[in-house]
Amino acid sequence: VQGQYTCQCISDAGTLVTQPYNACKDGSITLIENGDKVTDGNDKINFAVHPNPSYAANEVIKYFPTNTITLQAGMTEETTYYVTPIVGSDSDGDGLVELTDGCLSIGTTSYPLLFFGLPHGTFDAPAYAKVCDGANASLPLTIAGKAPFTVETLDSEGNSLSNTINASGDNFVFTPVDTLTIDIVRITDANGCVSTIKDRATVEVLNAPELTLSTTTPNICLGESLDIDLAIKGEIPFNFDLVDDQGNTFNFVNILSNTETQSVSPTTTTEYQVINLTDDVCIGQPSNKLTVTVNSLPAGLISGNTTLCDGDNLTLVVDITGGQAPYNVDLASPSGTK
Fold first, then answer.
1. 302, exposed or middle or buried, with CB in 10 Å at 0-12, 13-18, 19+?
2. What is the DSSP string of 12-63?
3. Tens place of pLDDT for every residue, the chain, 338 residues?
4. Which stretches does DSSP call E strand in 145-179?
5. What pTM value is reported for the model?
6. Other Cβ atoms within 10 Å of 248 Cβ, number
7. What is the spatial distance between Cα 7 and Cα 90, in angstroms, rounded to a whole number?
8. Could you give the CA distance from residue 200 to residue 290 in angstroms, rounded to a whole number?
9. Strand partners, 271
């Protein structure tokens, strides 16, 4: 056979299945061929990733020799790229088509690619909360990614917890049984992307405040005053009301110490109690009841003979009301002689 004969090119890059080609930043995208490519001899298929909807050789970021695409240097997450199938000869066997191949076939359709960023979340500073025993702890989160998020945590008691978070600024809510630390161990966003970057918060569980009433003088005479001592346990500041069964109220607001004293002057036997007790975190129960006994003042009435002879004896009767026996009585004449 003599002379030259030009063979007809039959190579055809074909098409891909049209569907969303998305993956998380740390994952990969698998392209699906329609099965309509045509190869000749040592042809190979490559997939050219480029930034614009139309293929241009000088803009290609990378030619992938397989249908598995990963995020490359020069590519950024949350940015749409495009992929075009290319078929051509691979005479050196390195898996990459020769762009100078006279029968190079470039696909007529480019398909969008998108790599999602990974979610990221942290507890808002100072990542610390005080809660009352039995109450919920609410820890606000700063979170980024595609909402909603599933936030999974592990506390220092070994408990695994999860919350659905709909937006940055929402609270991670749980009920601690003791003071503990809690770590974010995994965040999954609506794209299915997962972050395992950890962050930690501390929750302090506090007992409700307690207040005890006492006095050193539970018995007084009418007209006297006494001091009621108030001993408080809890987290300052405190607010409470000291009330009595006579309708009186003493308000205590923003108390910054654990001891207080209230002077009272009851005119009758009176019962005292503290109600509406709160501290910086919790609501307390009413205090013990303290009874102050008020004793009436004694009064004496003298009776007996009012006329007698010199040298006679006089019998006087003293009637005493009020007060509490036994009594000490002093008698005095008009001249002052006792």
1. exposed
2. B---B--S-EEEETTSEEE--B-S--B--TTEEEEEEEESSSS--GGG-SEE
3. 566 656 689 999 999 999 999 999 999 999 999 999 999 888 999 999 999 999 999 999 999 999 999 999 989 999 999 999 999 999 888 999 999 999 999 999 999 999 999 999 999 999 999 999 999 999 999 999 999 999 999 999 999 999 999 999 999 999 999 999 999 999 999 999 999 889 999 999 999 999 999 999 999 999 999 999 999 999 999 999 999 999 999 999 999 999 999 999 999 999 999 999 999 999 999 999 999 999 988 777 777 656 767 777 767 777 777 667 787 877 776 666 65
4. 149-155, 160-165, 171-174
5. 0.74
6. 12
7. 18
8. 46
9. 291
What end-to-end distance do the CA atoms of the chain give, in Å?
Answer: 165
d(CA 47, CA 336): 127
- Tokens describing residue 211: 């207040």
* Separation between Cα atoms, residue 43 and residue 78, nearest integer Å: 34
Q: How many CA atoms lie within 13 A of 169 on its CB side?
A: 1
C-alpha pair distances (Å), 48 with each of 106, 157, 166 = 9, 51, 37
> Contact at 8 Å (CB) between 273 and 289?
yes
Nearest to 199 by CA among 121, 147, 117: 121
Q: b/e per residue, 8-33, with b = 16+ CB within 10 A? A: eeebbbbbbeeeebbbbbebebebee
Q: In what order do the strands lie in the sheet with 120-123?
A: 120-123, 137-144, 171-174
